[in-house]
Amino acid sequence: MTGPEMVNGFTEEHLSAQPPHIRGLIDRRAKVLGPGYQLFYSNPVEVSRGSGVHLYDSGGNEYLDAYNNVVSLGHCHPAVVEAVARQLSVLTTNTRYLQEDLLDFSERLLATFPAELDRVTYTCTGSEANDLALRIARAHTGNAGIIVTRNAYHGVTAEVAAFSPSLGPTSPLGPHVRTISAPDPLRHGDSVTDMLRDEIRSVIEDLQRHGFGVCALVVDSIFSSDGVQPFPTDLLGILAAEVRTAGGVYLADEVQAGFGRTGAGWWGFGRHDVVPDLVTLGKPMGNGIPVAATVLRNEIGREFGRNVRYFNTFGGSNVPIAAASAVLDTIEREGLIDNAREIGGQLLRGFTEIVAGHSWLAEARGAGLFLGIEVTEPDSTEPDRALAQSLVDDLREHFVLVSASGPQGNVIKIRPPLVFSAADAALLLERFAAAADRRRA
To answer: What pLDDT does 36 receive?
Structure first.
């Protein structure tokens, strides 16, 4: 239970406050699970089942899940359950055999992207997808240097952890990695774009001076780990142009912002009016079944394909592809991109009203069903991590699950399943307002 501190993480100081049953489970975890695992919330939640936008604990308590984007269609969506069960009864094997279902899905997936992005390679996780994308980018550019935002998270393989600064000081960045600020209009106003253009030019020069060159700019288009920063939308195109001029490529990490979550089309980068060179997908792609992908321009992958034989045993195998196909079907059939835009707008309006009534809530921001609420010291922009954590814990005790994000852990991160309804949003707003009032009291 020891190790680097996690935002919204359980620590040993909270152990004595747990009931005997929970202490027993935590003790059993410590005796059998390997190093590095951590739990959410000061009082961890024991979950026994899920359905739609709800999780249930062993006592039958119902939690409104306003955080889980892995099951983007909601927990145990019947379309995915049925597709996986059906495929398991027919065939599960790998991509070294000709299979029409793999080609059908790939064509459908690529049709959701700009025409320039016309190839896809499958992996099991977003970490693997980012790892593969960087290998492809290195082969194409001949360079090693990577640029990310200062609190970015892109995965846990050794290669990808080396450019995931949010993992903390005990997971050092590689010598070939440089960081720039994430956009933060609350603190920097209209100067954000000019500031970041200057920063990226500076780190490009530094990478070149040290002999790394520029391989890739890797950016999550909602800047999730940087505190959920949806604006300004002209920024990514400007940064991508600087990197391309220096011989690098722009890799859009869509693991969190993709599959319609921002309510503005299928992919988060679309809000920014820029077409990436590579795109990585993960978590919500299979609604809980491990499946991920790297999507790319054909010309970007030519050098890698000439010299490397890539194979992933489970990447692109039949069962994950069946799950991913059911996800695409359901997003289209249930109009979930429109739902993300409409319900996200309802939430943003409601949170903005709540923020206006509390001096320690500085801002509500978001795009679709991806929102952040900045918690600060009263009448200030100084982050208040402890107050944010107390709000997250209060909501958990009132059966609403959210989390926190940002370099200082002071941004309430709200990222519910895409099937969130108007009634779900109203309940979330009601309980958030009550929790905020309790903090004021």
So the answer is: 86
pLDDT tens, 258-315?
Answer: 999 999 999 999 999 899 999 999 999 999 999 999 999 999 999 999 999 999 999 9
**168: pLDDT strictly greater than 60:** yes
Residues of the chain with CATH 3.40.640.10: 78-333
> Which tokens hold the place of 317?
């195998």
pTM of the model: 0.96
Q: Which CATH superfamily is domain 45-75+336-440 in?
A: Aspartate Aminotransferase, domain 1 (3.90.1150.10)
The CATH topology of domain 78-333 is Aspartate Aminotransferase; domain 2 (3.40.640)
Instruction: Cite the residue boundaries of each domain of the chain with CATH code 3.90.1150.10.
Output: 45-75+336-440
pLDDT digits (tens, 9 = 90+) for 417-441: 999 999 999 999 999 999 999 986 5
Q: What is the pLDDT of residues 110-150, one digit of tens each?
A: 999 999 999 999 999 999 999 999 999 999 999 999 999 99
